[in-house]
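Batch job 17 of 40 flagged for manual review because the log was empty.
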Amino acid sequence: MKELLQIGEVAKLAQVNIQTIRYYEKRGILIPKKRKESGYRMYDTGTVKTLNFIKHAKTLGFTLTEIKELLSLRATTTSRCEKVRKKAKSKLTDIHEKLMMLKQMEKNLKRLIVKCENQQTDSDCPIIEGMEE
């Protein structure tokens, strides 16, 4: 593998869109190693690993802001594992709260659907009435 790669090569290796890489650069998450006189962005081979990290972190529910923080912790060594563990635990708590909220939404929708299915007339809609309450 070459030492420096153009943006298209990085995108292909990481299986992401070129616009994604540009967006991450704009957000300060990715930084090209250098720019050629022609303006081409040149990235080191570690950028592919960073893009894989970003993709995996996104699947775990981390926001780009949180991912940027995690990437900065990835570069440091002093107590980084503890900091990352705290961020992961915080994310897990957020996910549990969202799951509870989704379960409540599911319960409410099921109740409204059953009420609608048990209704004898078509003149009133229990679902619309339930959302107006």
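Reviewer: the log was empty due to a logging misconfiguration, but the result itself is present. The chain is about 65% helix and 5% strand. Unflagging and moving on to job 18.
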